[in-house]
Amino acid sequence: MQAHGKPGTGIGARLRRKEDARFLAGKGNYVSDIAMPGLMDVAFLRSPVAHARIRAVTAPAGAEDRVFRAEDLGGVKPMQAQSGIPGYRASDYPILATGKVRFVGEALAMCLGRNRAEAEDLAGEVTLDLEELPPVVDMLAARRAGAPLVHEHWGDNLFLTTAVDGRIDEVARTAPVVVKREYRMARQCMSPLEGKGVLAYWDDRHGQLVVVTSTQVPHIIRTGLAECLGLEQRLIRVIAPDVGGGFGYKCVLQPEEVAVAWLAMKRRHPVRWIEDRREHLTAGANARQHHYLVTAYADRRGKLLGLDAEVSVDVGAYSVWPFTACLEAAQAGGNLPGPYVVPAYRCKTYSIATNKPPFCPYRGVARPGVCFAIELTIDAIARAVGREPAEVRAENLVPASAMPYNNITNKHYDSGDYPKSLRMAMEAIDFAGIRARQRRGEADGRRIGIGFSTYTEQSAHGTKVFASWGIPIVPGYEQATVRLTPDGGLEIRVGTQSIGQGLETTLAQVASEILTIDPARINVVHGDTALTPYSTGAYASRSMVMAGGAVSRSSTVLAGRIARIGAHLMQCRTEEVRLAEGRVFGPAGDVSLEEIAKVWYLRPDQLPEDVDLGGLEATVGYRPKVDTGAFSYATHAAVVAVDPETGVTQILDYVIVEDCGTLVNPMIVEGQAFGGAAQGIGTALYEESSYDEAGQPLASTLIDYLLPGTTEVPAMRMQHIETPSPYTEHGIKGVGEGGAIAPPAAIVNAINDALAPLGAELGETPATPRRVLAAILAASERQAAE
Amino acid sequence: MKAAAFDYVAPQTVAAALDALDAEGEARILAGGQSLAPLLNLRLATPKRLVDIGRIAALRRIEDRGDHHRIGAMVTHAAIEDGGMALADHGMLAHVAAGIAYRAVRNRGTIGGSLAHADPSGDWPSALMALDARAVAAGRAGEREIAIRDFLRGAFATALEPGEMLTAILLPKLSAAARWGYYKIVRKAGEFPEAIGAALFDSERRRARIVIGALGSAPLPLDNLAARAAEKGIEAVALDAVEAALREAAPDLDRIALRHHAVAARRAILEALAP
Ligand SMILES: Cc1cc2nc3c(=O)[nH]c(=O)nc-3n(C[C@H](O)[C@H](O)[C@H](O)COP(=O)(O)OP(=O)(O)OC[C@H]3O[C@@H](n4cnc5c(N)ncnc54)[C@H](O)[C@@H]3O)c2cc1C
Fold first, then answer.
1. Residue A721 in 3-state DSSP?
2. Contact A715/A605 with Cβ under 8 angstroms?
3. DSSP state of A585
4. Do residue A124 and residue B43 have CB atoms under 8 angstroms apart?
5. Contact residues of ligand 1, CB 6 A cut-off
6. B143 Cβ contact list (under 8 Å, min separation 6)
7. Total domain count, chain A
8. Beta-carbon count within 10 A of B207 CB
9. A487 and A433 within one domain
10. Phi and psi for A560 in degrees, rounded to 5?
11. Are residues A455 and A510 in the same domain?
12. Candidates A277, A773, A776, A781, partner chain B, best to mutate (most B CBs within 10 A)
């Protein structure tokens, strides 16, 4: 396959990532790499039980000044994420457990030591007096009357119930084909290579609390810290150094960030907390757990007539700040119809509190679950009507001729050709060849299956969408600063954050497109509230669209000023000059950006009187023409081999055909898709945070929590469709999350395709050997009984 | 998590190691650290003293002792995988070693550490039981030999007495006619298995062994089934027959675990008996 990419250094070039030089040389600088004189370590004493009333937390004698409990954090407010959705119940998420503990791993005390080992020694000596309460662990049990209550004063365990009540009764009465299914997606963890980490100190010179934290959203963290600590925001500076993956875990305020920031103010020496893997797996980044009851109505050809669904999300004990406990269910209800024409739709969602760690928005937010539910349903409909799933899928997709298309939940699909992505994927994976191979059978007795999954990814969805959820932080505009340095280089400053997704390269490419400066001479500055324009940060696949748009706009303003100075130096009219190759060309000669910069900064005597005093620095804001988002989409195709005796599944081939609008850097897009798909493979086959009935986490190390590795992630192939968004600068659509959305559906569809001749079907992730084998054995028992 | 504080000694001889084990306070042997280090970091093990046996040269040797090989306890998985020494095992140990974890773990993890740790899901316990190997335990009173079957007492339990250490494994030489099979069901490469099947048929030495591993207890020998397979061949060990034999020997297995272990055993048998 030929590598996709344009020549040059601007938009579309397959440029190597600028940031990789330091990463590959091991020179990245993460929170835990930072050394400071007098730095002390914090270890959190965490609850050993899922649900209990706190009678007492007692420091060992002599260590009272190094152990901090909820009652010691006078004046620190809990995190409270309000939502404007009627009926939503906000929880108070305490910085240290207050009154009750509500999940295993909830922080009860902060212990300080000269190093982490000493801090852990101290934590081991703190005595706990806890009165255990019955926990509620299963989300469906939590919905039932009489279940133990996570927050007693609510009277039940529901953060929120929503309903889309489309008229579906008529369809239900008359539809010739009815398919009912139950689906489950397991709870899992995000597992970035770098966990959370925060280091805080008081800076006397600036009179500021400096909080260095591994975050996707430094400006939001500042707002959250200010609220919890009761400080003015000008007194807080948040710095995000290199961030080793975020995936959503790092776009919310963590109680540890607040606690450590408070401690730095109290102690007036640097303190830090570095999350370890066990904390991460048990008390940290919980995500994904959904339960679906789906009834689909179709005609005899498998064309969808209506969809009726009930979605339950196990949100855990508290709502994260600022994205609330309802983001997931709201997204699920809104996105379930997927890329399909769904004439009638009804959906109820439940956001359920349980005695588990709080649910965070994870790459793809709700859509991996939603995609899993709808895509398995499409295949189930196809089997019910006896047709090829790929054909039924193609016929139900929104056709290109209908674009732009408002779907049944009012999502505005801006552009693209969804069926084409499916056709291309079928061809790339040799659909016909696989079907022929299946007829021949495998020498080793395994069964081959092929599965598809098509999805849309609402990227950079802006103000209206978030405002409708009424959450504390609503994203809107994005600003970027561009500044020519006195020697003709460029500095870009953005408030969004690179968390490994290559922004230091792609934003430089956008600037290079306009200013024709070599990206090697461009620095992207981010990750510091003191140095960058305000931004709500990196999430919702928004950075490339929003910050890319802002860099484009500010570069355009800067280009105009450069042109004027250049024209003056060449004694021609501004309209006569153009920028190319890092120079300004006039009718009779040219002048370099370096010379122009030198004149502005160092030889202003050569400038005209009426020069633009804004100079060679510009901060410009941006917002797309619509704020309903730019919809990327893709089809993933998987070929698997299932061992019917063991249930072990191996991925044989994997293809992605994606349209994310204008490709800023095809190599980075492919990297995003492959990385996301690797995580999706984890969801599909390996990752599971299970809990026992007492609410004890059963996957507390990487022995129990399986992540896909190099041997499990196949060499994926990718093809691009490039349909620019009509609404965004350069037609860019977001791409960060998409890769993770489709794999669970594509892979489990492939497994079900392999098992179809056995009459077995799976509706749950991860598709472990145990679950696959159970489905096979259940089918053979059913057949034996018949 | 960081380990709780401990003392550390690194003796040069087995005698010195036994002294260090015997001294006051709770002591623990450190071999490759691939199981112990995580236990220390999670504070699931909090010994007062670690006795690092990595500097005892004698424990790293493999010696030919006529009808068997003596494999030092500190021989690493990687050394066995690389097969520097012909073991008269038809390559079974090298095959098993290559399937343990990842190379980084194999570089440090040792056959003695693995056996002494007696993780039910570990590879060496099942493989060495199928091979009728013997463990050599050294204590103040000298050395004693224990058949692997007796050495492995249960999950993480061995016949080692307090103050004793494992110094070697004695591996009987196989005849030219011997055939083996080893099959693991794993969720992903390098992970601990869901089920292990090990099979050994040595007609010349009149030995037939089928061992089921990863059961949650010590590996389980199915001698009757092995004898039948040796006598009647593949037909005697259809999946149903293996499952029935296993159900009888391990009645607590649930449906899926039963199937997994039976399939692993059967595939090991087929590998050994395949023409
Ligand atoms: C990621 C990972 C994956 C793994 N996957 C597998 C796998 O697939 N299959 C498998 O079999 N194993 C696997 N292991 C375990 C590995 O094989 C270890 O090497 C083995 O379990 C222990 O050997 P060790 O030399 O590291 O012993 P250590 O960890 O040093 O010691 C283990 C225990 O044995 C005791 N001990 C060690 N040596 C002696 C001795 N000579 N006498 C008495 N007591 C002793 C120690 O005190 C300790 O209690 C894995 C380990 C890791 C980290």
1. strand
2. no
3. E
4. yes
5. B 28-36, 53, 73, 100-101, 105, 109-110, 112-114, 116-117, 119, 122-124, 160, 165-166, 190, 192
6. B136, B137, B167
7. 3
8. 18
9. no
10. -65, -45
11. no
12. A773
Reported as half-sphere exposure (CB side, CA atoms, 13 A), residue B185 has a value of 31
Ligand 1 atom closest to Cα of B53?
A: 41
Average pLDDT for residues A382-395, to the nearest whole number? Answer: 98
CB contact under 8 A, B2 and A645: no
| Closest to A765 measured CA to CA, from A348, A330, A352, A291 | A291
ipTM value > 0.85: yes
For A351, the token pair is: 């956001």
Which residue among A124, A712, A777 sits closest to B255, beta carbon to beta carbon?
A777
pTM, rounded to two decimals: 0.97
Q: Considering only CA atoms, which residue is closest to atom 41 of ligand 1?
A: B166
- In the numeric block, which tokens belong to residue B73? 């306890």
Amino acid letter, residue B91 = G
Q: Do B260 and A646 touch (CB under 8 A)?
A: yes
Among the three residues A579, A604, A622, which one is the final residue of a domain in this structure? Answer: A622
Q: What is the residue type of A196?
A: K
Q: What is the DSSP letter of A764?
A: B
Q: Nearest C-alpha of chain B: how many angstroms from A94?
A: 24
Write the CA distances from B127 to B104, B120, B174, integer angstroms. 21, 12, 14
- Best residue among B35, B81, B106 to mutate for probing ligand 1's pocket (most ligand atoms within 8 Å of CB) is B35
Nearest CA in chain B to A686: B187
The confidence score (pLDDT) of residue A466 equals 82
A648/B contact by beta carbon, under 8 A: yes
Quote the percentage of chain B above a pLDDT of 90.
93
Q: Is A403 near chain B, with CB under 8 Å?
A: no
Identify whether the C-beta of residue A516 lies closer than 8 Å to the C-beta of residue A578.
no
A60 falls within a domain: yes
| Residues A487 and A607 placed together within one structural domain of the fold | yes
Instruction: Report the CATH number that the domain containing residue A407 is assigned in CATH.
Output: 3.30.365.10
Helix (H, G, I), strand (E, B) or coil at B241: helix
Alpha-carbon span A51 to A752, nearest angstrom? 39
The nearest CA of chain B is from the CA of A426 a distance in Å of 28
Q: What is the pLDDT of residues A702-736, one digit of tens each?
A: 999 999 999 999 999 999 999 999 999 999 999 99
Is residue B7 a contact partner of residue B48, using CB atoms and an 8 Å limit? yes
Residue A16 resides in a domain: no
Residue A516: domain span: 477-622
By most ligand atoms within 8 Å of CB, the mutation choice from B21, B80, B114, B128 for ligand 1 is B114
- Both A508 and A586 in one domain: the answer is yes
**Each residue's pLDDT tens digit, A593-631:** 999 999 999 999 999 888 899 999 999 999 999 988 899
Determine the pLDDT at residue A2: 60
pLDDT of the residue at B85? 79
Q: Are strands A107-113 and A40-46 parallel, antiparallel or unpaired?
A: antiparallel
pLDDT tens per residue across span B165-182 = 999 999 999 999 999 999
Question: In this structure, are A722 and A768 located in the same domain?
Answer: yes
At A82-92, the pLDDT tens digits run 888 889 999 99
For A328, the token pair is 């997931």
**Reduced 3-state DSSP string for A531-542:** CCCCCCCCCCCC
| Same domain, residue pair A73 and A124 | yes
A450 and A590 assigned to the same domain: no
